[in-house]
């Protein structure tokens, strides 16, 4: 979401003309998702050695992604809070879990199902979005700033979500009083 936001913001400001579908379809991350969705749809299992190989590559990519995003952090920029960073920072840890919680109530999910979904939506965006934003000509500084603030806000909000969803009726009142 942050990647798309940074891309569209940059696109609107500089009037760049991209064919988004072409850029997205050439992205290896999108290609891998399409292949895996097709395999799941047709019930084709991955061979064990392929799954293990992809798992190792995924673990290595996570570390590299964290290093790349960490290298892009600027404390001076983080002190300048603007509306783009605010939207990017607040969407994931605060607004998304609220929307999911409403949908969970609408569909009658159990308390544990709602809690798991809310915790997933509260966690920060993926670090690979920085690389995607860079490839698509998006605002990588905006992505890094929003991701950094998402991480900080997630650390503050995650315990409150657990507290609220553990006891939905009384939890809302008590969570508001937590220091």
Q: How many distinct domains? A: 1
Poorly predicted residue ranges: none
Please give the alpha-carbon distance between the first and last residues. 30 Å
Mean pLDDT: 80
Order of helices and strands: HHHHHHHHHH
Total count of helical runs of at least 4 residues: 10
Overall shape: it is globular
| Major sheet details | none
Instruction: Give me the Rg, rounded.
Output: 19 Å
Helix content: over 70%
Describe this structure in words.
- This protein is mainly alpha-helical.
- The chain has one domain.
- The chain has ten helices and no strands.
- It has helices at about 1-15, 20-25, 30-40, 50-70, 75-80, 85-105, 110-120, 130-135, 140-165, 170-175.
- The chain is globular and about 40 Å long.
Write the layout of secondary structure elements.
Layout: H1 2-14, H2 20-25, H3 28-41, H4 48-72, H5 75-79, H6 83-107, H7 111-122, H8 128-135, H9 140-166, H10 168-177
Descriptive terms for the model:
179 residues; 0% strand
In short:
With 179 residues, this protein is mainly α. It has ten helices and no strands.
């Amino acid at each position: 979401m942050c990647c798309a936001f940074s891309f569209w913001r940059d696109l609107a400001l500089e009037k760049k003309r991209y064919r988004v579908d072409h850029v997205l379809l050439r992205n290896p991350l999108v290609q891998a998702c399409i292949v895996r969705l097709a395999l799941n749809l047709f019930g084709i299992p991955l061979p064990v050695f392929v799954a293990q190989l992809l798992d190792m590559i995924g673990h290595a990519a996570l570390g590299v992604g964290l290093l790349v995003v960490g290298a892009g952090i600027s404390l001076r920029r983080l002190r300048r809070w603007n509306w783009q960073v605010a939207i990017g920072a607040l969407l994931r840890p605060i607004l998304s879990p609220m929307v999911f919680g409403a949908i969970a109530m609408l569909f009658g999910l159990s308390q544990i199902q709602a809690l798991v979904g809310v915790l997933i939506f509260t966690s920060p965006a993926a670090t690979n979005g920085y690389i995607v934003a860079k490839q698509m000509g998006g605002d990588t500084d905006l992505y890094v700033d929003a991701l950094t603030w998402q991480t900080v806000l997630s650390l503050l909000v995650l315990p409150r979500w657990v507290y609220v969803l553990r006891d939905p009726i009384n939890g809302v009142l008590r969570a508001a009083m937590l220091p």
